[in-house]
Amino acid sequence: MGGVFNTMSEIPVYDLSEILKDYYKITWETYTFSSAKKDKFCVYPIYKSYSNILFIMEKSDILGGIIESIIVLSLKNGKVEQTINYKLKNKIFRIIFFDEEKFTLIGYTTSLINTKFGELKIFSIDLIKKEEKLMYSFIVELSGLNENEEALIPFTIYVLALNKRYIMLVNIDINFKNKSAFIVDLYNKSEFYLDPSITDNHSIFEISFAEIKKFKNRDYLFIKTGRISSDEKRYYFNLGKDIINKIETLLIIPCEELIQDLNSGVKPVLSKYLVDKVEYSETLSFLHYGKLNYGFFYSIKNYSQYIDFPSIPYVKENFLTNITDIFSFDLETKKCTYIGSLPLPSEKIRPVYREDNRYFLLYSSFHTYLLPIKNLFIKHYIGTNEISFFELPINIPAKELIEEFYFLKNFSIVITVNPEEKYMCVYSLNNNMPIGKIKYMDEFFSLIVNPETDELNAIIIYPRFLIKCDS
Predict the structure, then answer these.
(1) Do residues 200 and 279 make contact, with C-beta atoms less than 8 angstroms apart?
(2) Per the domain annotation, does 7 fall within a domain?
(3) Is residue 17 situated within a structural domain?
(4) Mean pLDDT over each residue of the chain, to the nearest integer
(5) Is 256 among the domain residues?
(6) Domain containing 347: what range?
(7) Beta carbons of 379 and 362 less than 8 angstroms apart
(8) Beta-strand relationship, 181-185 and 433-439
(9) pTM of the predicted structure, to 2 decimals
(10) Which of 269, 281, 347, 449 has the highest local Cβ count within 10 Å?
(11) Which helix (H) or strand (E) holds 224?
(12) Distance between CA 375 and CA 402 in Å, rounded?
């Protein structure tokens, strides 16, 4: 079932073949376009640390994705010490917290009671005891759906675990009668309502991205507001067309500080955590550091992709000058520092790599006939515009396109894609050899990195799409 990997590699490689032996692997085309009535499952990781990786199996449903099973691989000294495969009893839409010490999860589901009311339920899931417990339920009043509409699609709400006790909820659905932002104490069932205002005429209800990340053993809530993408905003601005959602903001909230304020009776002020703000002629976004992008849209907490680096890079693009400025926000001093500028749209400069506190981009090198030299890259240092060259110590086949680099302390990896033959290859730059090959779109891999040492511990390969075997 798994891809072909070199067993002689110094980095351990595992796949989920044995764990998922009761399922058939199917192709992306079958999963997406097949009209077969069999249950189809999507597999992907939602949490990684140097000791555990948490996968979910998500089943297609009229409501969207419903999590069918939880798979946990526990690693120690480069070996899988424990495997948990647990099938959920309740219909859980999303997992928002994982306690690695007790192997417990927090997840939630949303449903419509009728055309006027909806309900959110938060469950705790004990993977060792195989128990699920309802922790909290919340009824929301809707503005009233059309009686002829299908009352099956759940409403939209952001649910974020600040820790295993405190959950932040932001109601953003257009059908809510009254929008609200509040924090729930799961232990005593109390609710703390927040002032949603961030700046004048802009509130948390314009949230478009939220994620919790860990830096130096402290959790931070990253929030981006502004309900329009940068390319759309640029397009409408250049047309001279007016839009409603003009303002964008970035916020970074220390979770522990927010909880301490609540327990002290201090009502949190969101503007206190404002990193930056732009109007119509600019756009903002956090800059994904080009090593490992852990997490996803309002994900559960996981270890930092910046690896003990407390300055968080972000970009601000100006549509008038066509320049993108790059800044860093220091989590300790809470000050912004200008790094440099690039004449590129903000979404075109990712990923960015770091080398001894300096940021750089990697460009493909071209000769005079505009044909790429595949093993030579330009390193463009932001701020100084210094240029140096990076030469691959390995020859990549002509049909393979370089997808990404991972520069880790003990291991450097380059990922390639062959779009014609539909496979991906993983190459080691340490010993100049291929580590393995997986089927493009049908399989994928995940890297396990120790956040304290910045070292690669293992590679996990897994099938993306499955169906249940016939009994």
Answers:
(1) no
(2) no
(3) no
(4) 83
(5) yes
(6) 203-351
(7) yes
(8) unpaired
(9) 0.86
(10) 449
(11) strand 218-225
(12) 10
